[in-house]
Amino acid sequence: MIGHRCLCSAPEFKVHGQPGRLVLDGCDHPMLLVCGRCSGELIVRCNATREDRCEPCGKRHNRRLKRLIGSGFVDRPTGFFFATGTAPGADVLPWDTSTCNHGDRRCSGKMGCRVERLTAARWNGFAPQVWSWMMTEIRRRLPGHDVQFWKCWETQQRGVLHVHAIIWCVGVSAARMADIWKKVLQKKYQMDDGYRFEWGTERSCDAIGGSGSSVAELIDLHGFSFEEATEVREGEQQAEQLKFIRYGAKYCTKGGKRACTVNRVTGEIRDDGRGYRTWSASSRWGLRMKQIRADQQVWAQQAATAAGVVAGTADEVGGTDSGTVGGALDSSSDFYAGPFVVCSVGSSDQLL
């Protein structure tokens, strides 16, 4: 039970140091905010982005990501490519002999083998910067073309990052894009401290049976209908685009340990995934997370008004711009993220 609700026109909320035991629908670890002006209190969701930290909030973030990825297909019927990039093999990233002793030819992440920790951390730490350089190089090789992307990082079982991306560039053939993609991946990128970063070649993961992923796998995606995709249900035939959307969102929100990285200044190895974002999108890919959250807030406020209750607000919503989602959110859609509402009760006494 909270003391009293904040009614300030410009509240100054701060997270309470000892919130105690709080209960809020749709969140396993709610937070208590206290206003610095009137000492009013407000219970809000933790808004965790990983399901192992908070399952309800992690699932909402997963659905927001699906909507964000799918928004890039709404008004672009053609020109999509699916690109994959993987880390090099044991010649560049040797196996950790302290965890496996059966030789490089048999080593595999599926068998529990891991790349030597410092070597893997250095490669992971430079990968995000190299991705930025790659996209700059692709745009230079395609003058006059608008190139947009959405990408996510996947942590392979051997402990190194693996990138999946959708690249949009209309008017470019699959053969030309594949050739450009191979060329930017074949480059050795020189870092400031002398480290030479390089991507792997086909089947460089040294997995049993040669099942390593290709670094130059591009698939020209067909036109994507956002409305048709929202009607796809489990157990039915799914569009390839929707499969990737679910696949990409899963790797951004699922639990588990993220890849270790190294601080390029101090050389410190970090196991918390600092140094890279699990996903990112170019500025003109589609909707932004801020717009999706704002649209959900508007939806929640309208629903609360219709029900005759007051919807709580907080500055963590990320702005008041309603975005460009267009129309009400379909709660039955696979892309629906649920109303982003802090609380929706008639009395603060109902927040236990």
Overview of the molecule:
- By secondary structure, the chain is of the alpha+beta class.
- It folds into 2 domains: 13-62 and 289-350, no CATH class; 73-281, no CATH class.
- It is 26% helix and 15% strand.
- It is built from 6 helices and 14 strands.
- The chain has helices at 55-71, 117-141, 174-186, 226-230, 240-253, 289-307; strands spanning 13-15, 31-35, 41-44, 80-85, 148-155, 161-168, 188-190, 196-198, 219-221, 261-262, 269-270, 279-281, 310-311, 344-345.
- The strands form 5 sheets. The protein has a 5-stranded antiparallel sheet with strand order 9-4-6-5-12, with helices on both faces.
- α1 (55-71) crosses α5 (240-253) and α2 crosses α3 (174-186).
- It is globular and about 65 Å long.
- The N and C termini lie close together (4 Å).
Bin the helical content: 25-40%
Give the CA-CA distance, first to last residue. Answer: 4 Å
Number of separate helices: 6
Rg (C-alpha, Å): 23 Å
Strand count: 14
Q: Please indicate the count of domains.
A: 2
Strand content: 15-25%
Globally, the shape reads globular
- Average pLDDT level: 74
Strand order in the largest sheet: 9-4-6-5-12
The structure class reads alpha+beta
**What is the N-to-C succession of helices and strands?**
EEEHEHEEHEEEHHEEEHEE
Instruction: Summarize the biggest pleated sheet.
Output: 5 strands, antiparallel
Query: Which parts are unreliable, with pLDDT below 50 for 5 consecutive residues or more?
Result: 203-220, 232-237, 310-329, 339-352
